[in-house]
Amino acid sequence: FNSNPxxxxxxxxxxxxxxxxxxTRQGLQFRLDLKPHYRFNASAQxxxxxxxxxxxxxxxxxxxxxxxxxxxxxxxLSALIQYNSDLHEVSTNLRFNLIHRPLSDIFIVYNEQRDTxxxxxxxxxxxxxxxxxxxxxFRF
Length: 140
Fold this sequence. Notes:
Blueprint: E1 9-20, E2 23-37, E3 40-53, E4 56-72, E5 75-84, E6 89-101, E7 104-115, E8 124-134
Antiparallel strand pairs: 1-2, 2-3, 3-4, 4-5, 5-6, 6-7, 7-8
């Protein structure tokens, strides 16, 4: 079931079942999208999967939150925060994109992974990266 995706508030409910590798999978997904302003979008998604494989049965939960802001038609900021129950991990991805010419971009990306099984009050840092990428179109 999908509601009107062009509305300022929309949602989705999805159920899937069928074969998966050497077993079966059942999946349920809930998603909520908010567009309070033409420059800002937010979404939250919960996904649950139950897998029955020859190696054993297990279930997985994945929670995503995505935020996107457009400063202009050439400058964007986005964030993705994700929790994965199988890995016991919270992942964060922040991305700034500047289109300085058509088909030429500058990206600044920050990634971080944290272990949620940590005995500390906030999860232990597993990895962190800051990446700068420049694309430039050359015309001949």
